[in-house]
Write a structure and sequence with these properties.
single chain, 479 residues, alpha/beta, Spore Coat Polysaccharide Biosynthesis Protein SpsA, Chain A, Jelly Rolls, 6-stranded antiparallel β-sheet, 5-stranded mixed barrel, globular
Length: 479
């Protein structure tokens, strides 16, 4: 009986802005070590017995981020499943269950958010083994975290009668939504309450049976969408119309709070955090003698109990305490540690104003590589472009801008109208407005070039794709 990890990679990560953004959320960031959070999630599976390659659930916009980060780990997933629209965790897990059962009718699913930190990975493997044995008998297992504080940002699970024959496991008496401070304090005083981690172990067939019983429309729409999915070597693209017709509902609401098969294992000693805010990240970060967590080029004097992170520039702080300071290339956050969860209000205002800082960084990742804004002014902007070995941009044209390309590293193969040319370092070419063009890296090293755009309109939506190897639409949209 194989265990198929289901790694959930949705979410916008607004609470860790400005590093985490809509187009590059926190699971793809290196926040607590040399691996990103999604890489940490996959890596900790190595200690789980009978584990298959993971099934990753993501969306069309983030598919190449997931694929690239798994490739860098030398991990080949069982599937990368693309949701056409977010419908919460119940439909996502249903799609994973159907796909896993194609490979193993008795498949177990280990359902994991991709943005959690677990420092005690050996303990995780032992708890997963306990959950596996319980789920194999037909129970739906949730992982409960022993609460350390009366936290109001987590849902709670109330344990019931002990599960016969399994130490550290109980039948679930009730699920409780995020409580107020007074209620959370009472929960800790009474005992028997655990934080709801959002991790589960279930038998795929049992989950689908229970989903069909309590939310038949979710089951049916996901079944139709999965059956009509488009599949290639890299991705499974769920059929859009049928998937969009599914109710938007979590696995907790759809199944776990209603089934009589819910069992909780106590996930004690994991050193777990869902990093729901900068203050939460500060709590698990290494600190100096004054309680400060410093990352990057940071200089301080008379500073205490603060989290300071510099990503691109030197950050200096003097005579402050209890702050979160996070610097990126195009935005800086300064917040009191007790107020850091309110950062989502800033993101909402940026979104309402149409500001790109809520979605993208100055450096934007694309399936072929990346581009980064260097300078801009009236009727011009300058970008640094990096193209991965063997990769190419789409065959495209622009209505409102011309482009100059100067190669600074590597070799470029360029389609420029009717011409195809090779450019070496220090060579350049000019792409007139309206001319069809393509940029490709034929070499084995990254290609780097400087692009100077000039014209009356320089927005990223001034593009018509004529051919694209990444399956992106030919209609106008960002490159």
């Amino acid at each position: 009986m194989n265990v198929f990890p289901v790694v959930l990679c949705g979410g916008s990560g607004t609470r860790l802005w400005p590093m985490s953004r809509g187009g590059y959320p926190k699971q793809y960031l290196k926040l607590t070590g040399s691996d990103t959070l999604v890489q940490q999630t996959v890596r900790r599976l190595h200690g789980v017995e009978n584990v298959a390659a993971p099934i990753v659930i993501t969306n069309n916009e983030q598919r190449f981020l997931v694929a690239d980060q798994l490739r860098k780990m030398d991990v080949s997933p069982s599937a990368i499943v693309l949701e056409p629209v977010g419908r919460n965790t119940a439909p996502a897990v249903a799609a994973a269950a159907l796909i896993a059962m194609e490979r193993d009718p008795d498949a177990l699913l280990l359902i994991l958010p991709s943005d959690h930190v677990i420092l005690a990975e050996d303990v995780f493997a032992k708890i997963a083994a306990t959950a596996r044995d319980i789920a194999a008998t037909g129970n739906l297992v949730t992982f409960g975290i022993e609460p350390a504080t009366p936290h109001t940002g987590y849902g709670y699970i109330r344990s019931g009668e002990p599960l016969a024959g399994s130490e550290g496991a109980w039948h679930v008496r009730a699920f409780t939504e995020k409580p107020d401070a007074q209620t959370a304090t009472r929960f800790l005083a009474e005992g028997g309450y655990f934080w709801n981690s959002g991790m589960f172990m279930v038998k795929a067939s049992v989950y689908l049976d229970e989903l069909g019983r309590y939310e038949p429309k979710v089951f049916e729409q996901v079944r139709l969408s999965t059956a009509a999915a488009k599949r290639d070597d890299d991705f499974i693209r769920l059929e859009a119309q049928t998937f969009e017709a599914s109710p938007n509902i979590s696995i907790d609401y759809a199944v776990m709070e209603r089934t009589d098969r819910a069992v909780m294992v106590a996930a004690c000693g994991l050193n777990w955090s869902d990093i729901g805010s900068w203050s939460a990240l500060a709590e698990i970060s290494e600190k100096d003698a004054d309680g400060n967590s410093l990352h990057g080029d940071v200089m301080i004097d008379d500073v205490s109990n603060s989290y300071i992170r510099g990503e691109h520039r030197m950050v200096a702080a003097i005579g402050v305490k209890d702050l979160v300071i996070v610097e990126t290339a195009d935005a800086i956050l300064v917040a009191h540690r007790d107020q850091s969860e309110r950062v989502k209000k800033i993101v909402e205002r940026l979104t309402a104003l149409g500001r790109h800082e809520s979605v993208t960084h100055r450096k934007v990742i694309r399936p072929w590589g990346s581009y980064e804004g260097i300078d801009q002014g009236e009727r011009f902007q300058v970008k640094r472009i990096v193209v991965n070995p063997g990769a190419s941009l789409s065959l495209q044209m622009h209505f409102h801008r011309a482009e100059h390309w100067i190669v600074v590293k590597g070799t470029a193969r360029v389609v420029n109208g009717e011409q195809e040319i090779l450019l070496a370092e220090n060579q350049s070419t000019y792409i007139p407005l309206g001319v069809t063009h393509r940029l490709e890296n034929p070499g084995k090293l990254p290609l780097e070039l400087i692009e100077v755009q000039s014209g009356s309109y320089l927005g990223e939506d001034d593009i018509v794709r004529l051919q694209d190897v990444y399956g992106r639409e030919a209609s106008p949209r960002p490159v």
